[in-house]
Amino acid sequence: MGTDFSGDVISLRNCIQDGLSLINSMGREDIIYVISHIDADGISTAGIITKLLSLLDKPFVVKFVTQLRPDIIRDLQETIEPRELIFCDLGSGQLEFLTKILHSATRMLILDHHIPRELLGNIPFKLVHLNSWLYGIKGDSESSSSSMAYLLARPLAYQGVSEIFHLARYALVGALGDNQDIGHNRSLIGLNKLIKDEAEEKNIVKTRIDIILNGREIKPLYQALAETFNPLIPGISGSLEGSAKFIISLGLSRGGLDIERLSLNDLSEEKKALLVEKILERISLSYPGKQVLERIRTKLLGYIYEFPNEKGLLKYGRDFATLLNACGRMDHPGIGLSLIINEFNMDAYNKALSIYKQYKYTISNMLSRINDLLEKRGALAIIDGREFINEKIASPIASIISQSLNEPTIVVVLSKSTNDYVKVSIRRTSLLENIDVRRILEKTLSNLPDTYYGGHEAAAGAYIPNEKVDKFIADLDKALNLDRS
Asked: How far is CA 242 from CA 222, 227, 238, 366, 465, in A?
């Protein structure tokens, strides 16, 4: 793998070596607790790490969490008193809490790509902190947590464990799941690209430019279109009937295949071009303007990432990521993990597929209810879903809404977390690319005690006491106005 990127390669290599040395010292007398986030990047990271631990014959237990709040860390300490821990897609923003609460910890490895927070004082355990930001690599665009995990495991490939190279698939899945395909034609950039290039050389992944749709091989085209929310296609997204009528009206189902059997891969290049133009034509009725349509075209067309040896929804990177995300968001992250640990396990795949269908239905149902609830307040678009949005679904809902709005807006989705706390999911639309929502969130919460936040420049989240929601919204609006002035 090349080194043509701007990161501090020497320091990164040293940290990787320290991480491997730490893992080798773990699991001799204690069980290693792998604590992971529930999204596609978190599950991919946990998958790579558990594969590595299995190869090294290390004992481990995996536990998934929605967030690493102090109460969750406290519960870990009180229930299992862990001594050796590996955090996946978590930990960089919570080191202060980890050092204060996990009194039993002796060794800890953090694999993360969220902006680290400065820690004052001594760390009472052996720590290796493998975070892309610490080595000059942008964690919101150039590297995911699963990229970090893959770099950690990769040296074993040169010690005779050639199967390690195949773990690159999961690094790519994690990056795609975190929407890091922000380069030209939806390409991966930075460290993610280096991993992709090496995997492509080894025939682990193939790339080509095509229409980007979930389930391109295994789903009828009309179903794949109905499940497309980025971009949001009026009358088609969320509507099987509307999508079927659209396909029939274009004459795409002619040629011996009925609409239930016609998939995207059955279309000729000419018919694919027609499909794209007609989708853009449909969208232009709601969102006129040449620049808008060109931006939407880039969402429809771009690089797809194909894993030649996989099948079904595991064959393409974005499909795989959506499948893992569905498992995590629907309270079954372990099934997502089993797709990585036990490759070609049809029982796990069928369970994941069922969860995926339920997830898509849930998202569609939520979106149909949200349109009437969207409240505009200045540059904020607020959805108060505390009565019906599960906190695990709030993040994808916020992302979909932000991608569908053609205006400079910050999307704020509120969902109930506990009896006392509300989860806030924040996203910026593409017309606010110069706004750092994480920094604005940090400013807003600086005067609100008992709040916790994290995230990236384009997407962030927080937990705030229920009684402080109104003040939070007012302060967020003020902070945004100051930032734009």
From this structure: 9, 12, 9, 18, 41
